[in-house]
Amino acid sequence: MAEKKVMGPASYFPSIEKKYGQPIEHWMKELKKVSKLAHMEQVAHLKDKFEMGHGHANALVAYFRSKNAG
Fold first, then answer.
1. Any idea what the Cα angle at residue 21 is, between residues 16 and 23, rounded to 5°?
2. Phi first, then psi: what are they for 34, rounded to 5°?
3. How far, CA to CA in Å, does 20 sit from each of 1, 23, 24, 45, 47?
């Protein structure tokens, strides 16, 4: 049986962990601190505070928001 390919924002997770040296859980905790901000404000937070690339920041925010909707 073939292994299911990871799709969507989570497909960025291995490269995010490798490039920034932190597990995804670290970034989820960081985003929880700014959870009241709008999507692009959260992206800007990761880019400004951690010098994260736009694609990686956007993927983390999209994933975070999908899991914390409501």
1. 70
2. -120, 30
3. 33, 9, 10, 15, 12
Q: Is the dihedral of CA 37, 56, 47, 20 positive or negative?
A: positive
pLDDT tens, position by position, 7-65: 888 999 999 999 999 999 999 999 999 999 999 999 999 999 999 999 999 999 999 99
In three-state form (DSSP H/G/I as H, E/B as E, the rest C), the secondary structure along 6-70 is CCHHHHHHHHHHHHHCCCHHHHHHHHHHCCCCCHHHHHHHHHHHHCCCHHHHHHHHHHHHHHCCC
